Amino acid sequence: MNDFLIIIPAFNEEENMLTVINTLKSLNSPFDIVIIDDGSTDQTATKAKECGAEIISHPTNLGYSAAIQTGFKYAKKKRYPYVIFFDGDGQHDSTNISDMMEAIQMENVDVVIGSRFLQKRNMKIGFSKMIAINFFQLIIYLTTNKRITDPTSGFKAYKANVYEKFTKSSEFFYDLPDSNFIIDILLRELIILEIPVNMFDRQNGKSKIHATGLKPVIYMAQTLLSILIVVIKKKGFIKVGGDLN
């Protein structure tokens, strides 16, 4: 077993799965890979098995948050010192994995976020999504006095002292863990480091989180509500959920 675990949450990513896994394996780097198949109805799991990947399958689609927590719990069970989340849609650049690995091993760093905005990139970002990103940049700054350039990035690395905290449902209660999760981590006085990464436009399939129409508005409203809960919870006014080990 290696010290690093690459966790890939996936839902109906059969068109991207082979490329994502094979690209990671071609790096010949010291990490293990696990696919969290979130109840896919296509051939996602089959494609992953063809590559010899470790797979954990949810019996039904439980959502991105549940896939993340399953990854955390698997990593804790196996006692990985570090985990890196890597999207199954082909948008993350595998050549940045080594940068993430190096950064998360630094002293006084608890979480690393791969940011597409620290250097000029060619990835196209929709108008509504850019508004959401700018809005949550502001919310994070107002609530934590910290600046995060890419609050919606799914390319993240965690040390065990962080991810193990979130294997309990009382500590990880999100439907969509984005800016709300970042604020939670910062309010715990943990250190987040952003590093520049490259991201690609999605080639196949559709985003399951950031879509068009009213979905971005609903996403922003849900995230704002979750941020409010995080802040209130931090102040000790409420307790959320119960521990599930």
TrEMBL record:
Keywords attached to this entry: Transferase
SUPFAM superfamilies from the UniProt entry: Nucleotide-diphospho-sugar transferases (SSF53448)
MF-aspect GO terms: transferase activity
One Pfam family in the UniProt entry: Glycos_transf_2
Domain Glycosyltransferase 2-like: 6-165
InterPro entries on file: Glyco_trans_2-like, Glycosyltransferase_2, Nucleotide-diphossugar_trans
Protein name listed in UniProt: Glycosyltransferase family 2 protein
